[in-house]
Design brief:
Oligomer: single chain
Number of domains: 2
Radius of gyration: 19 Å
Structural class: alpha+beta
Largest sheet: 10 strands, mixed
Shape: globular
């Protein structure tokens, strides 16, 4: 069934990034966007193009990526969820769907993004979930990492934490949360900001891990930040431990809270 004009649908999408070459469509490789658009096009019975809240890199996972698309097809929210998921591969799924106004944009309407980084901190490499966490065999001092993280809170120029090829017009971002905790052999970094630069979370993780291992002093995070030079920022942490946990929007849209 179709109706005159277009309606806009927002979706919450989850995916295991282990076998994907990132979010964005690229020729000759498997991407989340391509799989999702193919499934949605099947349900809508016309070609669908999706727009996401934030593109994730190869190997990065999504617990609640938010996307929107326009369609002439008339389907219930339940049908968008179930119909799309059944046409997706087993490492991708739709969690929720909601009809929104055409003023909504998955990227530009967002007020914050939330990421989680998981580090298996033990002597031997993990076997279970080894593609969903990063392994560090040297002891990490989570309290040192947390003290260092405090220097990165607030609004700053994060040039030292952006990838060399980052195309963002401004390196200024506002970090509202950066918490480090330990649960047994797992060290967890939770970070929220109004937006992130390319590789910013992984570069923050790399700096904090160096501090946690004792390779650098606690104030090194502040020094790196103040240099505004990526070449002084240390190693970019691997992608396997990184999760886009969710995206925040104004309450008027009525979306589920981030995971």
């Amino acid at each position: 069934m179709t109706v005159p004009g277009l309606s806009r649908i927002a979706l919450g999408v989850e995916y295991d990034g282990s076998a994907f070459h990132g979010w964005q469509i690229q020729r000759g490789v498997r991407t989340v966007q391509e799989c999702l658009e193919q499934a949605l096009s099947h349900v809508a019975d016309h070609p669908v193009r999706v727009h996401c809240a934030g593109r994730t890199d190869r190997g990065v996972h999504g617990l609640q990526q938010v996307v929107h698309f326009d369609t002439r097809a008339l389907r219930s929210e339940r049908s968008w969820v179930l119909g799309t998921t059944v046409n997706l591969p087993s490492d991708t799924g739709v969690v929720w769907a909601k009809r929104v106004s055409t003023a909504f944009h998955a990227r530009f309407s967002a007020t914050a993004r939330h990421y989680r980084y998981l580090i298996a901190n033990r002597l031997t490499r993990p076997v279970i979930h080894h593609k969903r966490q990063v392994w560090c065999n040297r002891p990490l001092d989570a309290s040192r990492m947390q003290r260092a993280a405090g220097d990165l809170l607030g609004e700053h120029d994060f040039s030292s934490f952006r990838a060399q090829g980052c195309q963002a017009k401004s390196p200024v971002r506002r970090v509202t949360r950066l918490d480090i905790s330990r649960q047994g052999g797992l060290v967890i970094m939770e970070v929220s900001a109004n937006g992130f630069l390319h590789h910013m979370v992984r570069n923050i993780a790399g700096v904090l891990m160096a501090i946690g291992r004792g390779d650098q002093p606690v104030d090194w995070a502040r020094q790196v930040l103040e240099h505004r030079d990526r070449s002084l920022g240390g190693v970019t942490a691997p992608p396997e431990g990184l999760y886009l946990v969710g995206v925040s929007y104004p309450a008027e849209f009525g979306f589920p809270d981030p995971v």
